[in-house]
Backbone:
């Protein structure tokens, strides 16, 4: 057990440092302490629910759902957020306007601090300003990358997509996993969540440094500003990317990182992170898997696709962005067998509130920007065209329809990087659930599959009966 003692000693040295930071900033609980206080109650609640209602039927499954991406089948547990088809996302019961109102903000700012959202998603509680500040400081203090991760990023060719570089670098952080070391040393399963927590915070702290290093290597001079422990997470990230001098951009980053974080558990990136984590892979390996899913064009990469599509439309329409021209362009996209990027959703059946939040930001900060006007005009035409086209169940815009335009306005024009920003944000949603999963002792995930032949036998026998 000496390896476990070494892991525990390292963890406790780190904890001493963070406790010192906390003692300096606040006398209130740290996030880890608060989660530890709340966990027994949650464990008891789940135990009671399972004992009382474990055999209650909570849904039915149609054959078409098995062939339809399992849409709507209930079978996942996700504590941080629930998505209503009409109302949109609720973070621990709160809408986007609610979190904009309730969560601590930067001085003079209007947008929530994503660090505070992480706290909310993990505990269900809104942290105080002092707790948020102490957590920001902890993240900044843990941000330094190991040398081999820096080298892996620096050796990646600029032609390798930023999302592939991102996932490789996150995978390479596995060397830092306290969970993997503790598991190898034989830690008791009751302690899993503590090491998962440490890995998750370590990972969250390092993501902006990884992302900024990729951005600066691929698109700029390869130099990355150092982390400043007095700044919040988003300000540090914006600074490292090279946009830290514009206070509006900092606010955009806070909004961006907050609204892209969590969208319940069934989306590809959240589900993948959770699934891989269920095999007790570390948070580094689990998130890397989720990022690979986010990189798909029907999921997170849609923000890049939207920009490429908008730019192609802009150049083809030569400035005449009348609704008639946009309508023709939309039909061309659909008739060529492609999807309209940024529109449609697997669960939502109205305009994504994340779209609306970004539209409000644009109306305030860039009402006359030409790309924003184009996005607004498309919003007036696309739902009608998609409805006439008759395929999609949801003709309304999603989050990716708007995000890129805001970044373009501030000169952040490299759209192939946009999904990396989404990935940094998604960690704020999926890592809390990994910690909760380990705290609740969730089992390895293993749903049942059948071959088409076996399904045929099944439905024939059901229909005969
Ligand atoms: N343009 C054209 N056709 C669309 C469409 C769109 N924006 N959205 C859905 N459809 C089509 C589907 O491709 C499907 O066609 P087939 O029957 O030929 O296979 C049909 O409409 C039914 O699809 P659906 O049930 O409405 O949508 P799904 O739940 O299967 O898929 C999504 C959801 C998001 C993948 C889909 O709407 C889409 O491809 N949108 C464009 C890409 C996009 O914006 N993705 C980002 C989503 C948000 C995110 O995860 O980041």
Residues:
């Amino acid at each position: 057990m000496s390896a476990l003692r070494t892991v525990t000693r390292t963890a406790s040295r780190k904890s001493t440092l963070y406790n010192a930071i906390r003692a300096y900033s606040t006398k209130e609980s740290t996030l880890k302490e608060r989660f530890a206080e709340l966990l027994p109650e949650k464990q008891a609640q789940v135990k009671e629910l399972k004992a009382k209602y474990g055999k209650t039927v909570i849904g039915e499954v149609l054959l078409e759902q098995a062939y339809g991406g399992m849409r709507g089948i209930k079978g996942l547990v996700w504590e941080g957020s629930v998505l209503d088809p009409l109302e949109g996302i609720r973070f621990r019961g709160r809408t986007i306007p609610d979190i904009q109102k309730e969560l601590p903000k930067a001085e003079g700012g209007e947008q929530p601090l994503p660090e505070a959202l992480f706290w909310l998603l993990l505990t269900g509680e809104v942290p105080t300003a002092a707790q948020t500040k102490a957590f920001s400081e902890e993240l900044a203090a843990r941000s330094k990358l190991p040398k081999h991760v820096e080298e892996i990023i620096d050796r990646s060719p600029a032609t390798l997509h930023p999302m592939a570089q991102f996932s490789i670098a996150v995978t390479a952080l596995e060397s830092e996993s306290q969970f993997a070391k503790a598991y190898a040393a034989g830690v008791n399963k009751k302690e899993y969540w503590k090491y998962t927590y440490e890995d998750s915070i370590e990972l969250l702290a390092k993501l902006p440094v990884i992302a900024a290093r990729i951005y600066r290597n691929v698109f700029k001079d390869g130099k990355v500003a150092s982390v400043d422990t007095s700044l919040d997470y988003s300000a540090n990230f914006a600074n490292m990317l090279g946009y830290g001098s514009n206070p509006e951009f900092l606010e955009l980053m806070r909004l961006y990182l907050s609204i892209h974080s969590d969208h319940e558990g069934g989306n590809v990136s959240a589900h993948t992170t959770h699934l891989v984590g269920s095999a007790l892979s570390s948070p580094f390996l689990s998130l890397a898997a989720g990022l690979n899913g986010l990189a798909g064009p029907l999921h997170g990469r849609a923000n890049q696709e939207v920009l490429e599509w908008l730019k192609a439309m802009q150049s083809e329409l030569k400035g005449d962005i009348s609704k008639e021209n946009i309508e023709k362009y939309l039909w061309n996209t659909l008739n060529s067998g492609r999807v309209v990027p940024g529109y449609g959703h697997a669960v939502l059946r109205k305009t994504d509130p994340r779209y609306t939040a970004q539209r409000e930001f644009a109306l305030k900060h860039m009402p006359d920007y030409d790309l924003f006007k184009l996005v607004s005009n498309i919003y007036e035409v696309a739902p009608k065209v998609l409805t006439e086209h008759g395929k999609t169940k949801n003709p309304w815009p999603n989050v990716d329809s708007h995000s890129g335009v805001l970044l373009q306005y501030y000169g952040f024009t490299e759209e192939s990087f946009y999904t990396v920003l989404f990935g940094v944000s998604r960690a704020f949603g999926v890592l809390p659930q990994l910690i909760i999963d380990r705290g609740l002792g969730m089992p390895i995930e293993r749903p049942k599959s059948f071959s088409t032949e076996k399904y045929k036998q099944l439905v024939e026998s059901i229909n005969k009966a």
User: Anything to note?
Assistant: Residues 267, 298-300, 302, 334, 339-346, 391-394, 398-400 surround carboxymethyldethia coenzyme *A (CB under 6 Å). Strands lie at 81-84, 88-91.
